[in-house]
Amino acid sequence: MEVTYRKNLNKSYMCVDTQEQVLERYELLMLEHCRIPELLNVCVSASDKNSRYLYDISGRQQIADYLSGQKLGCSHLQKLLFSIQNVCVSLSEYLLRESGICLDLEFIYINLENGSFQFTYLPFYEKNLPEAFRSCMEQLLRKIDHQDQKAVELGYKIYQLCIEDNVNIRKLLESVLSEKQPVRDEDKMKEEGNQEEKVHTSSKTEENREQENQYSQPQPAQEKKLGNWREKLSEVFEMIGNYIPKSFEIADSFLKSCKKDEQLSKTKKKIRQKEKMWFHKKKIMGQSEQFFQEITIQEEVPEVHPTEILAIQENNLIGKLEYQGNHQCEDIIIEGESFLLGKNCEQVDGVILAEGVSRLHARIIRQEERYFIEDLNSTNGTFINDVELEYHQPQELNKNDRVRFGIEEYVFS
After folding, report:
1. How many of the other CB atoms lie within 10 Å of CB of 211?
2. Shortest CA distance to 405 belongs to which of 374, 383, 376?
3. pTM across the whole model
4. How far is the C-alpha of 97 from the C-alpha of 95, rounded, in Å?
5. pLDDT tens for residues 398-410?
6. End-to-end Cα, the chain, rounded Å
């Protein structure tokens, strides 16, 4: 079995070429003439030796690509398990074999429009469903978000049940997923009860906040007192700064004309105190000026280091996509071994907010000192020097290559 990908106008296909014979002939008629929602639509072209199955994957992405840059949460895991349960029901209704469904992640796709999962049915394929489901769960457990406790509990619970002997996958999923539904209803009831308690306690909390604000915030009279005190204090410091030198001259003339008595000693003490205050103020001002000078010197010195570091880094290979269009997109610096490009800000590494760019458009892979780019089944395609890339077919990037995502063009440097 050989899997390739191709595009024809606005359609994308997963091509499966094989020399194996179809196990049941009626299955081909069933797959070609019946549109089963849980399965990818397929067209068959057969020759004497080889058979080619064309599966329509337009507007869809593999689960492995869809989960790139993110983890599998509880909601997506539940939705996938429900889809596997539903496809088992549909297979029995359309008289298709459970062993013909392929549960490898590269054969499971997600519809980007409605978020539904679709599976690949191979008429020549025969694999025990419990074994296929077990290997699928082993792959999913590696992708589960271990910060999501519900996802971890659900994933490991199902895995422990599916490794038992003679297990029925359909009944297993029905039993486990039916248990999860009441839990969600109880959670909703608890949330509604919490909301009612919040409504009843909101008035009390508002009263408590008002009382706390009365103690924490200053009253208007207190604010006026504080303001007057600050104004007077600032006036005192201005007087000290502006008039103490003049008071020294007046005091000296006054001392010469006055006799040594108690009043003179009192005035001397007052003047000496003012002198101390004045010189202490000058000392503080001098220390503060010296302190700020040291800070400016310390801030100016480190500016030498970035130029040295950048000069060293210039010798290393740094991938960059320089924007060449007219829609004010930014240049993209490529970092890491796997770099995702697209419109989905929460998932990709390089964001391209432009029309014609898919949410998850392409991936750039770094291998040692070489860069490769591959398309991720984007709607409008990824091009290198006007040659369109095939889905999951990496192409090496060379310096000055023109890379186009839809209509947005970049130059690789």
Report:
1. 10
2. 383
3. 0.62
4. 7
5. 999 999 998 899 9
6. 38
